[in-house]
Write a structure and sequence with these properties.
Helix content: over 70%
Low-confidence stretches: none
Number of domains: 1
Shape: elongated
Number of helices: 2
Radius of gyration: 14 Å
Oligomer: single chain
Amino acid sequence: MFETLYLTPVTGALTVFLVVVCGHMYRQNWKSEASNARTRSWLFGVPAAIGLLALAFVPLKF
């Protein structure tokens, strides 16, 4: 069923980039303590978590 589910090197690199940018924005938001910090933390944290899970569990195919 999941035999065709894999990451190519390009999609893997883009996923790493997305995780790094979202993680950085999450950290900046955490430190800013703005009024809408909780909502923005969810908006940056969820894509970072999904990207990390994809990198951890989806195989890379060359």
